[in-house]
Amino acid sequence: MHLFSILISQIINGLQSGAIYALVALGYSMVYGIILLLNFAHGDIIMVGAYAVWFSMAHLGLHPIPSMLLAVAASTLLGVLIEKLAYTPLRSAPRLSLLITAIGVSFLLENSFQLIFGAGAQTVPNLISGPSLQVGSVTVSFSAMLTILVSVICMAGLTFLVQKTKLGKAMRAVSENMSAAQLMGISLNRTISFTFAMGSALAGVGSVLYLCTYGQASPTMGSMLGLKAFVAAVLGGIGSLPGAMIGGFAIGLTEALVSAAGLSVWKDGAVFAILIVVLLVKPTGLLGKPMVEKV
Amino acid sequence: MKMKKIIALALSCALTVGLLAGCGGDKKPESGSNEIVIGLLANTTGGAAVYGISVRNGAMLYIDELNAKGGINGKTVKVIEYDDKGEATEAINAYSRLVSDGITAVIGSVLTGPTIAVADETFEGNMPQITASATAAGVTRLDPGNSNEIRSNVFRACFIDPFQGEKMAQYAAEKLKAKTAAVIYETGSDYSEGLMEAFVAKCAQEGITVTNTEAYATGDKAFQAQLTNIAASQPDVIFCPNYYEDDGLIVTQARQVGVTGTFLGGDGWAGVKDYASAADLEGSVYCSGYGSGANPEFEAAYEAKYGEPITGMFEPLGYDAAMLLCAAIAEAEKQGLEAGSDAYKQAIIDAMKATNGLEGLTGTFAFDQYNDPIKSASMMKLEGGAEVFTELF
């Protein structure tokens, strides 16, 4: 194969994994934008989504399509539930308490799934299959096309929702100034719950796309995925939605190219090196707004 | 008064005689008797007991069959077994007890740690020892990595890890007529790296060009980048010496990025059928210590005796270890030596070392210069979503 077509293939690989990072990073960014919380349990919502697909296919005997819808619904519900049970009671507490709670929720989810379903991976082979695309000597797998396409549609939908609808306006208002928004008659609880629901739904979509490619769900799958999506969100500028998308794709591409160069062992290192460099050089990320601490 | 003294004297005499008689009864098995006494060490309780029980049951099945057929040279093989709990200190204690029980050879232990601990002891006493399952180089070698000195009295029935890499390279060259190969392995895993190095070295001898040697880190789920590199050179075979979860992911993603070659693997592949689709796996081959279904007769006999089916390769390896040892004992018997004597033990060791072409359940046995078996491996092929035993290679 020609060097050029290898490069194209590797870029497609990067876009494929980047699309999933971007979907997860959006959830991080949305939640951070609205209540300044780094929701470290977000990665585990993907895990729960993936188990929902596996469970409904393997145990309830459902067709893949309803299983996927069920997974997105389960993720959404779980996100809202976590927000109601764990974060709402702490809304006026110091931000550090919230952060620690988020880490606690993450551990709780991972370990309870390990307890219930065992530590080994559950497989969902052939969730969706279709013809792969052959362009010259470049093979684009069906799952790669599907992943990139679906995530771009989701991102477009989200952008429309945030920019053009009333709920989106409310979200932006709350993220700008919570108390002022409340004074204007915006329901804080509803808006925050809606934000969590949106972010978790995207994570649910991410889990389905993840399964299309990797076909395995394991209790700890969300932790590394979540951390990398977090790096993507920071790279793009946490709180910024277009930033999260760009960050996600950038992380995916970095991983693919580092691996392709034969340095696959350094793949994780490269991603976290990006985090360090961003925090040192431009802590607000590519598209983040510099924030002034109010006294 | 005098009478009392006499009675006391008589009584104490009787007691003393009784004590002496007690001593006399605790004799070692007599030479020339109708028994050959061997020891069996296995961890039948504790964490990895499932292996210990399997090896023990396999070995006992062979011994019972042998005794039912008349034993060795008309003598019954008597097995004294102790549980070493998988611990080195327990194993050494158990071995000391076996020595005072008067054994002439020992089968065991099962796990690497206790096996090496016991091997140190048996080496000093030149006691013939065979382990069914300990794979570490240090079992038969005194100082692996630094010298080629071996414990001349210690043998094993299982093949060591790198051996599988060599086997698969040979298989690729001879059976699949492969000209090019690629490897994708996990860095930091002794198992994976050991197999990879052996495979690459053997490929050079067999005239197979290794086009790509791709690595990944523990815990990775995405392999497309490495596999795209492999797809670019489209090798005939891809050697994937990892464990089944990773193997399943790798095969699935390899097919997605257009890798068409045949996948080869080691015994870590066992169970892979549940981790990738039947279509993606079709035609892949891995080697194993024993392929289920390779010997239905043995499997039926095992189930009849123990009420449950074999779990994998440990039962047949236990069976083969007992078989190898008994074959060597038969040689020593032929020489008319006295069971338990040093000459007898040396004769067993010499006979074991000279093993050539002995047919076992897990292959045809001979031993190399390190007392590791040179034997065939069971080739398992993925056919229609099942792992099917095809041949001994």
SSE pattern of chain A, N- to C-terminal = HHHHEEEHHHHEHHH
Shape of chain A: globular
Top CATH class of the largest domain in chain B: Alpha Beta
Q: What order do the helices and strands of chain B follow?
A: HEHEHEHEEHEHEHEHEHEHHHEEEE
Widest beta sheet: strand line-up of chain A: 1-4
Our estimate of the beta-strand percent of chain A is: under 5%
Strand order of the largest sheet of chain B: 7-6-8-9-10-13-14
Tally of separate domains of chain B:
2
Task: Give a structural overview.
The complex is a heterodimer of chains A (295) and B (393). The mean pLDDT of chain A is 89. In chain A, the strands form 2 sheets. A two-stranded antiparallel sheet of chain A has the order 1-4. A two-stranded antiparallel ribbon of chain A has the order 2-3. Chain A has 295 residues and is mainly alpha-helical. Chain B folds into 2 domains: 197 residues, 3-Layer(aba) Sandwich (Rossmann fold); 127 residues, Rossmann fold, CATH 3.40.50. In chain B, the strands form 3 sheets. Chain B has a 7-stranded mixed beta sheet with strand order 7-6-8-9-10-13-14, sandwiched between helices. In chain B, strands 2-1-3-4-5 form a 5-stranded parallel beta sheet. In chain B, a hairpin with a 4-residue loop joins strand 11 and strand 12. In chain B, helix 2 packs across helix 11 and helix 7 crosses helix 8. The longest helix of chain B is centred in the first third of the chain and has 24 residues. The N and C termini of chain B lie far apart (88 Å). About 4% of the residues of chain B have low confidence. At the A-B interface, helix 1, helix 5 and helix 10 of A face strand 7, helix 7 and helix 8 of B.
